[in-house]
Amino acid sequence: MFRNKEVRDYTIKYVLVLILCGVALFFIIESYVNHIDEIYHQEIINSGQDYDTLLETGKISYSPAEYSSQINEHKRTLFVIAYGIFTVLGVTIYLFGLKLYKVPMDAIATIRRNSEDALEGDYNTPDFSSFTEGDISQFYFTYTKMVTAIKQSRDKELKEKEFLQDLIADISHQLKTPLATLTIYQDLLCNPNVSDEKKQEMLNVMGGQLSRMEWLILSLLKLARLESGAIEFIMKKEQLLPTIQLAVQNISMLSEAKNQTVNVSCDEALLLNHDRDWLAEALTNILKNATEYAPKGSSIDVTVESTSVMTMIHIKDYGMGIQPEAQSKIFKRFFRAKSEVNENSIGIGLSLSKGIVEGQGGDITVSSQVGKWSCFTVSFYHLETKG
């Protein structure tokens, strides 16, 4: 116990105070006894009689020699009793004070051990229910909140680090093919034996690969910003129809190339709290996916349902459909179905749409019947409360 510096210092200070109190008690008792002695002799002097007469008359019980012996005996007895009580009381107070002193010391020791564990990566906080002191319990509560906040910050940092590593690996993997194509074509263009017609063909391919790389990098940067929470959506309660029309316009060239018709059914007066530009991009990616899977000359239906609880945007194409095992993976980054109709597809558009929709408080799901149709549903719950 005394190996603890704080307990040792407390004991030394207490013993020093106890010694001072003991010395003070000695002088108090000595002064009291001397005062009694003075009163005894003063009474003899005031009586005007000698000691023998006073003894004979019974006014005093002891002769001066006997009185000195008796007063010393009583003094010793008084010292024994007083110092006995003083010692017992001092030890009792010391032990009680030590117990009280050890409460904050034990608290500090627990915090120290737990802090060392936290530095080693163990963020499990101990059970502090045994410490019921007001300030100490408040301190423990604050400490627990601090450790929890550090753990959450650490977990977030590790998650962001893993995401960044995965993102870099994904970018590296996806850029390998177009970079390899560009390198090969660049070498071929340097060959003087290649005809101008062939060079133009290769330049067109290189332009397509560069466009693909640009779209990939921009999309990945958007996805990274979404997943890291760096994008702040500007939410406004405005008409939904113009947002859908903007998305349809974005894929008009693709749908016209395949002679496809996009049918939109949405109440012009319908209002939705959303970020128009970002939601239009999310819907554009879904519509682009629909045009790729829908056959030439087919139609794509965009219908909107709205109730007092939620608003749902359905985008349905009548193409080959999606296999059941692929439906749970279709929103993952870089996932491509085995029946992918576009060999240049990267598999990031739907993942980006999911991030945008969820970032605005919505949800996106897919249902499909193989060989007949696929339907993506974007849902937004109405969270406004009436005051």
**Radius of gyration from the CA trace?**
46 Å
How many individual β-strands?
7
**H/E element order:** HHHHHEHHEEHEEHHEE
Strand arrangement across the biggest beta sheet: 2-4-5-7-6
Give a written overview of the molecule.
With 387 residues, this protein is α+β, with helices and mostly antiparallel strands. Helices cover 63% and strands 12% of the residues. The strands form 2 sheets. A 5-stranded mixed sheet has the order 2-4-5-7-6, with helices on one face. Helix 1 (5-47) runs antiparallel to helix 3, helix 3 runs parallel beside helix 4 and helix 6 crosses helix 8. The chain is elongated, with a radius of gyration of 46 Å.
Write the SSE topology.
Blueprint: H1 5-47, H2 51-57, H3 64-119, H4 134-189, H5 196-228, E1 236-239, H6 241-250, H7 252-257, E2 261-265, E3 271-274, H8 276-293, E4 299-306, E5 310-317, H9 324-327, H10 349-359, E6 362-369, E7 373-381
Parallel strand pairs: 2-4
Antiparallel strand pairs: 1-3, 4-5, 5-7, 6-7
Short synopsis of the structure:
The chain is α+β, with helices and mostly antiparallel strands and 387 residues long. It has helices at 5-47, 51-57, 64-119, 134-189, 196-228, 241-250, 252-257, 276-293, 324-327, 349-359; strands spanning 236-239, 261-265, 271-274, 299-306, 310-317, 362-369, 373-381. The protein has a 5-stranded mixed beta sheet with strand order 2-4-5-7-6, covered by helices on one side. Strands 1-3 form a two-stranded antiparallel sheet.
Keywords:
alpha+beta, 7 strands, 10 helices, two-stranded antiparallel ribbon, five-stranded mixed beta sheet
